[in-house]
Each structure stands twice: as structure tokens, then as C-alpha cells.
Amino acid sequence: MSNYPFILYSGPEFTQVESVKRAEHYYQYMDKRRSMRFFSDKHVPENLIRYVVMTASTAPSGAHKQPWTFCVVGDPSIKKIIRKAAEDEEYLNYHGRMSEEWLKDLAPFETDWHKDFLEIAPWLIVVFKKVYDLDGTEKKKNYYVNESVGIASGLLIAAIHHAGLVTLTHTPSPMNFLQDILNRPENEKAFLLLPVGYPADNATVPDLKRKEEKDVLFWYK
Ligand code: IYR
Fold first, then answer.
1. Exposed, middle or buried: residue 196 (CB in 10 Å: 0-12, 13-18, 19+)?
2. What is the dihedral of CA 134, 135, 141, 147, to 10 degrees?
3. What band does 1 get if pLDDT is binned at 50, 70 and 90?
4. Before 67, cis peptide (omega within 30)?
5. Rounded mean pLDDT of 123-151?
6. Going along 120-168, which residue ranges are E strands?
7. 169: Cβ below 6 Å to ligand 1?
8. Which of the pair, 198 or 171, is modelled with greater confidence?
């Protein structure tokens, strides 16, 4: 049974006072995270991308199946093809496929079908989910795939912010084109597309407010 023999847990240990301080500082740090649409083309070292991706890959997953792959694109010619394909889909989204209500909800963010950032950001990380694993031609089921890959993506975004970089959870829809362009196997479906880099000089973000504690946190002590 024991593919995974149990070993002693060796996580970090802090005093309670330290723990509370760390939690508070981490919250304050994460509260500074913003989705960024304006990127600099400044170089970002490959090693940094490796570490943020491997942080994402520490995520918990159903039955430890780790049902994800991360494709990192820096090649300008591939970025150009991805941008064109994403813009073709988004043009259709913004011109008929999105409901009036959706367009109204997006209006304050001034987004449109142009996706320059897909060429300007030095790296694009494409997160793929594996609904099943392929063992030769045999399909092996994965569990809680959306939850697992969603959690991994959250860790990825936190790691990117932790490194002082910015990203955007871009979801061109539908995004099957990424599977084709990147030549991924049939069991991988694109989940998110994240441009990663430094913010452009004088980059702006919408002045949005986050929900308050009283609206999101309910205690049952
Ligand atoms: N995927 C489109 C539309 C879009 C949807 C949501 I929800 C956003 O928060 C932002 C944009 C696009 O990327 O333009």
C-alpha cells in the first residue's frame, strides 16, 4: 500500500507572536498585489520563472496527482502567434459573445480585445490542466482537477508577487488554440494564461476597493 511511507513533518516553527506578525505582514504584502495590464519588456531571469513555477507545483492536489503543466513562452515569434489567436477570440467575445451585462461589468476596467501585453511581457506562463493522465494509451483519471489547478495558480500568482513582478490572469475564451500552438498532448487543456514581467513605467491600475472583513469573514466560535 505504502507508495508514500510516512515521515516526520518538518515544517517551520514560530512562536505564536511571530506567527501572528507574519500573518499580518503577509496579508499587507498580498493586499498590494494588483492585476497588471501594462508591462515593461525588461528582462526577467529564467531562474526566477523556474522558482515561481516550482512554487506553484507545490500545491496540494486530489490524490497527489499534480494534474498540471506550466508552459513558459519567451520566444517572440510564439508570443506573436499567441497574441494573434487570443485577439481573434477576444474580438468575437467583445463583439457579440459576451452579454450586455458582462460588458457593463467590465467597462470600468477599460479592457478590450487588444492584448499587446501578450507580446510585451517577457514571459507568458500557460497553465494547463490534465483531466486525465496518459500512461501510454491508457487514460488514468485525475481528481478535483479544477480545484487543484486553481490552487496551483493561486500559489503561482502569490510567488510572482512575492518576487516583485506582476501578472494578469488572462482567460482568452475559448483557449484551445494554446494547446495547438504549444503542441500539447490531448490530455492537457489550457486553464490560464499569465503574462509575467515588471510593470511598465507609470503603469496604472483601476482604483478598486476590496471587500471588507465584515463582508467576507464569518465566525462560528
Ligand atoms: N477574457 C476577456 C474578458 C474579460 C473577462 C473578465 I471576468 C475580466 O475580469 C477581464 C476581461 C479579456 O481578457 O479581455
1. buried
2. -60
3. low
4. no
5. 96
6. 123-130, 132-135, 138-141, 166-167
7. no
8. 198
pLDDT at res. 2? 66
φ, ψ of residue 114 to 5 degrees: the values are: -75, 130
- Give the burial class of 123: count Cβ atoms within 10 A of its Cβ; 0-12 exposed, 13-18 middle, 19 or more buried: buried
Length of the chain: 221
Segment 97-121, tens digit of pLDDT: 999 999 999 999 999 999 999 999 9
**How does residue 65 score in pLDDT terms, banded at 50, 70 and 90?**
very high
185 Cα–ligand 1 center, Å: 26
* C-alpha atoms less than 13 angstroms from C-alpha of 77 in its C-beta half-sphere: 0
- Verify whether ligand 1 is closer than 6 Å to residue 55 (CB atom): no
Q: How buried is residue 126: exposed, middle or buried, by Cβ count under 10 Å (0-12/13-18/19+)?
A: buried
Alpha helices in 57-139 (DSSP H): 76-92, 100-106, 117-120
pLDDT, residue 3, reads 84
Using most ligand atoms within 8 A of CB, pick from 171, 173, 175, 178 the residue to mutate for ligand 1: 171
The CA dihedral of 14, 20, 21, 24, to the nearest 10 degrees, is: 140
Does the pTM surpass 0.85? The reply is: yes
3-state SS assignment for residue 43: coil
| Closest-lying ligand 1 atom to the alpha carbon of residue 173 | 1
What is the separation, in whole angstroms, between the first and last Cα of the chain? 39
